[in-house]
Amino acid sequence: MRFNxxxxxxxxxxxxxxxxxxAEEETADATVIERPTFTPTSLKAPFLEQxxxxxxxxxxxxxxxxDDKSEEEWAYVGEWAVEEPSVFKGIDxxxxxxxxxVAAHHAISAKFPKKIDNKGKTLVVQYEVKPQNSLVxxxxxxxxLQENKKLHQEEFSNGTPYVIMFGPDKCGSLHxxxxxxxxxxxxxxxxEDSPVARTNKVTSLYTLIVNPDQTFEILINGDSSxxxxxxxxxxxxxxxxxxxxDPKDSKPADWVDEVKIADPEATKPADWDEEAxxxxxxxxxxxxxDWLEDExxxxxxxxxxxxxxxxxxxxxxxxxxTVPNPKxxxxxxxxxxxRPMIKNPEYKGKWEAPLIDNPAYKGVWAPRxxxxxxxxEDKTPSNLEPMGAIGFEIWxxxxxxxxxxxxxxxSVEDAEKxxxxxxxxxxxxxxxxxxxxKPKPEANEEGTTATFKEDPVSFVRQKVSHFVELAxxxxxxxxxxxxxxxxxxxxxxxTMILLVVGAISASSPAPAAEKKGKQPxxxxxxxxxxxxxxxxxxxxGGATKRTTRSSAE
Length: 553
Fold this sequence. Notes:
The chain is of the alpha+beta class. The chain has helices spanning 312-315, 412-421, 423-437, 456-473, 475-481, 483-506; strands at residues 22-26, 32-36, 47-49, 59-61, 80-83, 96-99, 104-116, 123-131, 138-139, 142-146, 162-166, 169-170, 190-191, 204-210, 215-220, 223-229, 234-235, 243-245, 260-262, 279-281, 298-300, 317-319, 322-324, 341-343, 355-357, 369-371, 387-396, 401-409, 531-537, 544-548. The strands form ten sheets. Strands 3, 5, 6, 8, 14, 15, 16 and 28 form an eight-stranded antiparallel β-sheet that branches. The chain has a five-stranded antiparallel β-sheet with strand order 4-7-27-10-11, with no helix packed on it. Strand 29 (531-537) and strand 30 (544-548) form a beta hairpin. Helix 4 runs antiparallel to helix 5. Residues 1-19, 172-188 and 510-553 have low confidence and may be disordered.
């Protein structure tokens, strides 16, 4: 089965610094951070990894070719290293396993001292992930591999059978093994409603608890994120269906699945006129008494003046721009009156035969059901197959993903104690370092931070600057942290779009507003040799350039 969750933000308990030596460090903004020194835990577990100096005796990178059915051949060429964090270092000397290459396939694994069998027991899997270059696309999950004496770590690949796959992933791509699903433990079931991926650069802690009562729980940073039943809350379900569609069954060629058909006995009525227009002139309409036929809708602007730099020889005859005729403002309309159009009561459109129930309809076709040859019923899916190793087999677009403090065992209490000794110590320090890197609000002339009431311009500038810096790392986190800025920028963008659309509309001549019963006035016919306005307005006082048509036109 596959347990897959994603990065999410969570509340963090207070750090306990007991058992660590402390060192003070001053950040760029003079914030003093007390940084403890790493000390290995005294806890014992079936498998516990803190990547101490002897890590290479346990972990072996793989350079196998990927088990893929595609024609493309490639191998796991991604490099691994164990080193301290390069950003937001929480504890001095605390090292982790780091992905070193971008856009590369990485695989590395470590064998357990002895196989882990959790039948009738609680299984706890816990580890830390620190995406030091954020996490745009890729995975940071781990795999617990099936116990197999023939398991060669240098040959570990996506085809290696595993029992559990658990951890954060982004872009929705998980590398599932290609084996046939005879064993439901490698089919790829996953709990539904996975949390949203988190992309900031501080450490996150992921914990999976599988209980012998067939329930599970996923914790992120020590807080419950998802819990449910192994038998009910997985998709696809842990236990397959008893019956499946017969893959050999197909819909007969003469199967009729049209519910309705055109009535074959219907005929078009003799008086049905398909050519009747949709609209006709309203013969009952009369010209309003206040209609001014001798007035035009628009007239030359009486206040417009010819620009001083207008050159008649170069620019043509100057014509004043037009404005709405004030005489038409309080009447029904001006110009030539024409009857309005109304919907034609005789309009029927193209005739079509009415639909009737199809007498040959057989219903919705479905393949017949057969017994599922792969059916089984496992009432205790928490009794997983024995596990012999742990591995990371991932592809990612980011390097410097760091893994640390891996616990695989049977004690929820021990996993919680490890969290308090490690994650709960480093996380507040990393958060403080992250906060120290954020842009600080600008100070006013008195050296204090501006408020909206005191200086609204500086206040808004501070907010927007802070939002932009956060959005560079994580747009979603920025929107959640400063929702008022995100909403304001969205409204500003919409306003700019509307202004651009309005400007484009304003640059095109708009038709005169029509009133009830009004029809547009007919344009006067042009006479030979008469001056006409060009459609292009010059930038000289809003005047229009005038040209003269010759009698030869």
